[in-house]
Amino acid sequence: MPITVEKIIFAIFADVLEVEEGDVTLDFSKEEDSEWDSVNSLRLFTNIEDEFSIRLDMNEFMNTSTVRGIVELVEAARI
């Protein structure tokens, strides 16, 4: 079974925010986790760019408040 964009992003979020991977869902949001602050947003941004070898718009990324939104940004950048 291929590893999906979602699963990779879930793993990155779990690692950066130090939560269980099973706790990260598409609806996981900044409001839900106090660790998802500006510093960790930057860590997420760079880890995701590195993992997928893509460039994301930092303002768009920082204004996205759910994992679903991040997945959509990554999928759009991979096209």
Description:
InterPro entries: ACP-like_sf, PP-bd_ACP. It comes from Halalkalibacter alkalisediminis. This is Acyl carrier protein. There is one protein chain. By secondary structure, the chain is mainly alpha-helical. The protein has one domain: ACP-like (Non-ribosomal Peptide Synthetase Peptidyl Carrier Protein, Chain A, Orthogonal Bundle). It is 57% helix and 0% strand. The chain has four helices and no strands. α1 runs antiparallel to α2 and α1 crosses α4. It is globular. 16% of the residues are buried. The model has no long low-confidence stretch (mean pLDDT 94).
Task: Set down the secondary structure blueprint.
Elements: H1 5-17, H2 38-52, H3 58-62, H4 67-78
CATH topology: Non-ribosomal Peptide Synthetase Peptidyl Carrier Protein, Chain A
Judging from the principal axes of the Cα atoms, what is the shape? globular
Q: Strand tally, please?
A: 0
How many domain units? 1
The CATH class name reads Mainly Alpha
Approximately what portion of the residues adopt beta-strand conformation?
A: under 5%
Helix content: 55-70%
Organism: Halalkalibacter alkalisediminis
Protein name: Acyl carrier protein
